[in-house]
Amino acid sequence: MSIFDRLFRRERPITSSQVIEETQSFSAFTGDAYSNDIFREGVDAIARNAGKLKGSHVIKYRDHDREEGDCKINRLLQVRPNPYMSAYDFIYKLVTRLYLYNNSFAFIDRDQRGNVVGFYPITASHVDLLSDQSGRLFCGFLLRSGRQIVLPYSDIIHLRRFFNDDDILGSDNSAIVPGLELAHTQNEGLVNGIKSGASIRGILKFTQIMSPEKLKAERDAFISDYLEIGNDGGVVATDQKMDYQPIESKPIVLNADQTKAIRDKVFSYLGVTEAIVSSSYTEDQFSAFYESTIEPIATALSQEMSAKIFTEREQAFGNEIIFESGRLQFTSNSTKVNLIAQLVPLGLLTINQALEILNLPGVADGDRRLQALNMIDADQANKYQVGGGEKK
Asked: What pTM was estimated for this model as a whole?
C-alpha cells in the first residue's frame, strides 16, 4: 500500500460528476532517463544541494521588519512534512521528479478547519488537468499502485521546468534524448569492447576430415595447451595436421575527450558541472551553481507555497513562505572571517549571526549588535565636520 493509499482511505468530496472537462494531460517520460548514470549523477547533485534549503513561514511588515510565523508550519517545512519523510527527503524527491519529468507535484493536506497538517510529494505516472462547470481546475493523478485520485489544483504545489509549450505544464525532456542515447551507446561500446577481447582470437584449421566430436576435443586441447595463462612462453607449436590463424580484434572505444563531451552535454542540459557532481568545486564555482540552479528552485518553492498555503487576505498581511540557505556555509573560512570583520563594525551582524556564519553554536545574550565607536549616523555627519554645525 502506497502513502496515498493510506492518506486517501476516505474519498475526498470531489465526485466524477463535478469534473466535466479534461483540459490537458501529462505522462511521465518513458525514456527512463534516471537509469542513465550520467543523468542520475547530475540530478542527484542538484537534489542533494537543494535539499539543504530551509523553508520558513514568516510575516513581513511594511517597515521591513520580519518575524517568525506559525510554528506548526515551520516544523512541517523544516523537520517533518509528513510521517514518512524528513524535510530533506521531501525537497530531494520534489527536485528529482522536477528534473526527470519537468513537472513535480506535492499535495497540501489540511484538517477540517483548513489548517495545514502535511505535505506529500505525488508519484504519479499520468496526470490529467480537469475543470468543472465553474471553471475550477483539478488534477487527476494515476498513482503507481493503479489508483486514481482527483485533487483541487489549489491544493497542489506544482513546480515546472521549460515552461513554454503549454499553459500549465512544463515541456518534456525530448531535447536531451539524443544525448542520453549517445551516453547509452558509449556504455554499451565499453562493454562490447571488453567482451570482444575475450571472444574469438583465432581460427584453427585441420587438414584432415574429423568428426564434430573429434574437432571439439582437438580444439579444447589446443586452448588448454596454448591459449590459457599456463602457457608462459607464449609460443604455439603445430604440425601439418592443423593450421592456426590468429585474429586481431581492435574494439572501437571512445577516447577521454569524447567521453567528457558526452558528460558535459548532459550536465549542461541539467545546469550542473563536473566539479559540482564530484564535489571538487571551488568557492566561485559553487556560488555560480547556487545562483543559476539552486536559487531558482528556492524562488519557485517560495512563491508556489505562499500562493497555495495562504489566502489572498493572509498574503496581504505579509504571510509568506521563503526557502533560503546559508550561502556563507559554502564559502572558505578566510572569506567568512573577512566578511565578519567588515560587517560587525557597521552593526550589521549580531554576535550569534557571526557565530552561525562560522558554524559555531550561539551564546546567551548573543542577539546584541556591536558597532565601532568611529561609526556615526549619516544624518549627524555634518556636526562632526570642521567648522560645521551650530556654535554654542
From this structure: 0.72
